[in-house]
Amino acid sequence: MNVVAVGGGTGLSTLLKGLKKHVGRDIDKLCAIVTVADSGGSTGRLRSIYDIPAPGDIRNCISALSESEDILQKLFSYRFKGEGLEGHAFGNLFLTALTDITGSFLEAIKLSSEILRTKGEILPSTVQSVHLVARFSDGEEVLGEERITEYGKDKKDVSIEDIWIEPKDAKAPIDALAEIESADLIVFGPGSLFTSIIPNLLIQDIRDSIRHSKAYKIFIVNAMTQPGETDEFTADKHVETFLRFSGLEKVDAVVVNTRMPPVEILNRYLNQGQEPVTPDIGKIARRGISVYAEDLIGDKSDYVRHDPDILADLLLRIANNEVLSKL
């Protein structure tokens, strides 16, 4: 079975950590298609100097899929301290340097993946330097992934009414389109809905390829809302919004977390303006979509995140029922 995971941020890297354990067994080939529209932190600073696609989410995916020694993974994620280099991740600098030396962002990713021995392929949704633009309900247009989230946080009473990339005619790598074409299973999320998942499908080539793909398509709903992006979103609202902006008519299945975090952890999130996503499963089911609702966060962490192993095991169970049995 060939699996393509689409997204970005910590959500996609979490998913990949779980799925890579099944490569060579249930999964023949694993590919991550990653957004490169990030504009904050180390990534944003490097982009402004070198005019390259965002390396940050790519770096996270390489680390997540790596089979190299633990020290190499830690090195790739290491952030410098002190004036000048402060906040820069070593992996971001490494990818930027390789891009500058080879003249190819794709080649830089390939070489980095070989060095860290990744159990899967990592591809950007485009190799062009793209930026997100969002129009809010108050009419304001905001440029840049980081500024979009901050504007939503600051205004509180506004919502995103439209979102696109510039340049609008950005193209996807032909390798990414080939991976989508050969996929048996395509997974979207988890991750920031507007700034990690949807941006990939704002690339017209990616959108068209996924729309025409015969792969079984699964959307993973986030466990918590995100301030500035999905305040008060229920699970069904996540699905509705994803379908609206992705241009897809539907997905085959939706995965929803049903477990409430412990009170002490929940209170910390509530103080930050985040709350558990309400699992309004019935509304999703009425869309003609299969719903898989389970405890997906476990109890291993002080953070409310999908557990990589629990999530991967569920996806493989779905695949066994819906994909592998029909191959």
How would you characterize the overall build of this protein?
The protein is of the alpha/beta class and 327 residues long. It folds into three domains: 1-35 and 170-327, CofD-like domains (Rossmann fold); 39-124; 131-166. It is built from 14 helices and ten strands. The chain has helices spanning 9-19, 41-50, 56-65, 70-77, 90-102, 105-115, 145-155, 174-182, 193-201, 204-212, 235-246, 263-271, 281-285, 308-322, and strands spanning 2-7, 29-34, 121-124, 131-136, 141-143, 160-166, 185-188, 216-220, 253-257, 290-294. The strands form two sheets. It has a seven-stranded parallel beta sheet, sandwiched between helices. A three-stranded antiparallel beta sheet has the order 5-4-6, covered by helices on one side. α11 (235-246) links the parallel β8 (216-220) and β9 (253-257). α1 packs parallel to α3 (56-65), α2 runs parallel beside α5 and α5 packs across α6 (105-115). The chain is globular and about 55 Å long.
**CATH top-level class of the largest domain:** Alpha Beta
Our measurement of the CA-to-CA distance between the termini, rounded to an integer number of angstroms, reads: 8 Å
Q: Given the helix and strand composition, which structural class is it?
A: alpha/beta
Shape: globular
Number of strands: 10
Tally of separate helices: 14
- Overall average residue pLDDT: 93
CATH-defined architecture of the largest domain: 3-Layer(aba) Sandwich
How are the SSEs ordered, and which strands pair?
Blueprint: E1 2-7, H1 9-19, E2 29-34, H2 41-50, H3 56-65, H4 70-77, H5 90-102, H6 105-115, E3 121-124, E4 131-136, E5 141-143, H7 145-155, E6 160-166, H8 174-182, E7 185-188, H9 193-201, H10 204-212, E8 216-220, H11 235-246, E9 253-257, H12 263-271, H13 281-285, E10 290-294, H14 308-322
Parallel strand pairs: 1-2, 1-7, 2-3, 7-8, 8-9, 9-10
Antiparallel strand pairs: 4-5, 4-6
Helix pairs in contact: 1-3, 1-14, 2-5, 3-4, 5-6, 8-10, 9-11
